[in-house]
Amino acid sequence: MELYRRFLKDPEKSFFLLGPRGTGKSTWVQSVFDDALRIDLLEPEVFRSYSARPERLRETVEGNPAKRTVIVDEIQKIPELLSVVHFLIEKKRGTQFILTGSSARKLKRTGADLLSGRALMRTMYPFMAAELGTHFDFEKALANGLLPLVWSSAQPQEVLKAYAALYLREEVQMEGLVRNIGNFSRFLEAVSFSHASILNIANVARDCQIERKVVEGYAAIVEDLLLAFRIPVFTKRAKREVAVHPKFYFFDAGVFRSLRPRGPLDHPAEIDGHALEGLVAQHLRSWIAYGNEQNKLSFWRTRSGVEVDFVVYGPDTFHAIEVKNSDRVRDEDLRGLRAFQQDYPEAKGLLLYRGKERLKRHNVLCIPCDEFLARLHPDRNLSYGYRQV
Fold first, then answer.
1. Most CB atoms within 10 A, among 52, 70, 211, 359?
2. CATH, domain 15-123, list 3.40.50.720, 1.10.3210.10, 3.40.50.300, 1.10.10.10
3. From CA 106, how far away is CA 171, in angstroms rounded?
């Protein structure tokens, strides 16, 4: 797999590095900390050894005093190691511990707070377009997503088909997270219709014929497995009644497509539109995590149905962003942004679309989506490069 420079930065102290399988955590760790002491809990023999005797970690670290960085891959496999790590952080000051994982569920349940204040939380996301540079292909990203495992594959569709099955088998079934794997599979299919939409648990429960409380638990599981996320409604200084339910997204546009059923009644343009909005969502989420953590990502929707796809709000940022799967801009496409700017004149309006021209209409900047994504960089403001139109 070709190596690309990732935007994630070494915080230079102990940290958790979470992220779904295939996002490149191990590749990044190996390239940045090539001389570290590494313990990979995915290796069966290593797993058996440390699960039988968690204190072996202390013996291993103390037996390698020259190693100033210690990596434990897939720490959620043996959460009991966290107490040992806590002890070692206190005792071996100056040693950096990097704890990678593809699931936050066990860590939440087994006292990761023991390391509160001693280990930071970082997340690895799929590629950002700017990380790929000249290798970024917008149509490819829209069709297959930006998961490094998929991007580098000669058969991306086959890898995507196997991806959900990998999680079902290894993370869900083997860890005993759900009792009925068939119900969970139906849930994943049903909730794919909520991607880039307001998540209505009752509707999802009805669609997959599962009790609402069970569906609520399943939704929490996919978030803990880092497969999905929700964004809340923007309510600051609200002048109108706004929606109360969050919007739901799978973490990668390609993973969404692999889970979304297709049939005679499914319009390709509708699926493409949801994939496009998800592609923008995952980029904004990465942009915030990799260098703009003071900013918050939300959306805006009034009770009457007027909506803006994304609101990015922070100390120096206030942007309302609408995404349209169209190669031309119509005045009706600007309706939500114009309404938002009436309530929040301080906000900058951006419309991202599939066309090739940069336009300005009704005080809204209309930008080709591929250009916006390619220029989006954690070290730059969202308005970078668009001040002159």
1. 70
2. 3.40.50.300
3. 11
Q: How far is CA 35 from CA 85, 134, 155, in A?
A: 19, 30, 33
Residues in the chain: 389
Residue 277, classed as helix, strand or coil, is helix
Q: Give the C-alpha distances (Å, rounded to integers) separating 8 from 11, 17, 124.
A: 9, 10, 7
Give φ, ψ of 34 to 5 degrees.
Answer: -70, -15
Residue 104 corresponds to which tokens in the numbers above? 């936050």
How many other C-beta atoms lie within 10 A of the C-beta of residue 355?
A: 16
Q: What is the mean pLDDT of the chain?
A: 90
Looking at the DSSP bridge assignments, the partners of residue 249 are 229
Residue ranges of the chain that CATH labels 3.40.50.300: 15-123
What lies within 8 Å, CB to CB, of 51 at 6+ separation is 77, 78, 80
- Kindly provide the residue ranges of all beta strands, DSSP E only, lying in 79-131, ordered along the sequence: 96-101, 120-123
DSSP state of 333: G
The predicted-structure confidence for 342-355, as pLDDT tens digits, reads as follows: 999 999 999 999 99
Task: Please enumerate, as own/partner, the contacts of 108-117 that have beta carbons within 8 Å and a separation of 24 or more.
Answer: 108/224, 109/79, 110/79, 110/80, 110/82, 111/79, 111/82, 111/83, 112/16, 112/79, 112/82, 114/82, 114/83, 114/86, 115/14, 115/16, 115/82, 115/85, 115/86, 115/89
Q: Are 227 and 255 in contact (CB under 8 A)?
A: yes
DSSP 146-213: --HHHHT-SSHHHHHHHHHHHIIIIIIITTT--S-HHHHHHHHHHHGGGBTEE--HHHHHHHHT--HH
**3-class DSSP state of 80:** coil
Residues 18-50 pLDDT 10s? 999 899 999 999 999 999 999 999 999 999 999
What pTM, to 2 d.p., does this model score?
Answer: 0.92
